[in-house]
Amino acid sequence: MKKLNIVKANLSNLSHAEAILHITNRYANDPMGMNRPLHDEVKSNLIEEMKAFSGTCCFIAFVDDQPAGVANCFYGFSTFNAARLLNIHDLAVNPAFRSKGIGEALISAVEKEASENNCCKVTLEVREDNRARNLYERAGFEYGEPRMFFMSKSVS
């Protein structure tokens, strides 16, 4: 692999914003995402909405200045620990760059950010059939006891 550089994204930086949008849309197209592109309205609004949300924290992996991966994260709060947490909402690596340690490097950057900001933990959700589960387990993520399910309900 060529030169890997992980940067904390500045959403006002056009190249950072374009990289996040590009990689997130590719992830949405992936079978582990939604298996379809982001809606045009989402693509038009995503960066501005992320900028407006005070808990946004994104990291971009560049390989020789090419966007290779992204970790879109959001700060939350753990009532059981009375402390902040950092949730990895999207961890995506472009197919051409997979299995090269980019996911591990992104997770390390997220963990460092969480540690520097006194977070009690880093959280994420993963589909049971996602091959990236191995990466998360190697990075020390585990199922809690009792084993939890991530559930959602859309609201209009």
How would you summarize the topology of this molecule?
Layout: E1 4-8, H1 14-29, H2 40-52, E2 56-63, E3 66-78, E4 83-93, H3 102-116, E5 121-124, H4 133-138
Parallel strand pairs: 4-5
Antiparallel strand pairs: 1-2, 2-3, 3-4
Biggest pleated sheet: 5 strands, mixed
> Helical percent range?
25-40%
What's the arrangement of strands in the largest beta sheet?
A: 1-2-3-4-5
In round numbers, the mean pLDDT is: 93
Q: Total strand count, please?
A: 5
Low-confidence stretches: none
What structural class do helix, strand and pairing data support? alpha+beta
Could you give the order of the helices and strands?
A: EHHEEEHEH
Query: Whole-Å distance between the termini?
Result: 44 Å
Q: How would you name the oligomeric state of the polypeptide chains in this document?
A: single chain
The 3D shape can be described as globular
What is Rg? 15 Å
**Number of helices in the DSSP assignment:** 4
Strand content: 25-35%
Identify the notable features of this structure and list them briefly.
156 residues, alpha+beta, five-stranded mixed β-sheet, 4 helices, 5 strands
Describe the fold and architecture:
- This protein is α+β, with helices and mostly antiparallel strands and 156 residues long.
- Helices cover 32% and strands 26% of the residues.
- The protein has helices at 14-29, 40-52, 102-116, 133-138, and strands spanning 4-8, 56-63, 66-78, 83-93, 121-124.
- It is globular, with a radius of gyration of 15 Å.
- The model has no long low-confidence stretch (mean pLDDT 93).
